[in-house]
Amino acid sequence: MISGPISEDGSLAGPTLRPVALTGVGGTTVTVGLPSPTAEATITPLGLTAEARTIVGSYLGSAVPSRDIPTYATLWREGKLPVEALISLTITLDRINEAMDQLAEGSAIRQVIVFGE
Fold first, then answer.
1. Cα separations (Å) of 81 from 38, 65, 72, 78, 111?
2. What is the pLDDT tens value at each position of the chain, 117 positions in all?
3. Which of 62, 64, 73, 99 is most buried by a 10 A CB count?
4. 61 and 30 Cβ atoms separated by less than 8 Å
5. Does pTM top 0.70 for this prediction?
């Protein structure tokens, strides 16, 4: 999907990005993650206009908490969103440093901090 070398940090080492060209007519290319402040990408605007393509950025899922949290809570209550299955570990606040180390190592993905136990 990407034309050009990729550096160790995952950023483009070359200037050409091709996902827009690979997106179908009328489709949307979604950029995810936070790029380097100096990162640049090159596109051909003719394809955007002539084929009605869209480019959208998404940072942290582009959530709107006031809209999304009630929806997620309803889905969870109905058994349609298995939140418990998404939790790697439950910790107390005094184990926060250990939890951060596990995130950095990749041995835990989502951790819940329990207060007052």
1. 38, 16, 7, 8, 17
2. 444 444 444 444 444 457 777 888 999 988 887 788 888 877 778 878 899 998 888 887 778 889 999 999 999 999 999 988 889 889 999 999 999 999 889 888 889 999 875
3. 99
4. no
5. no
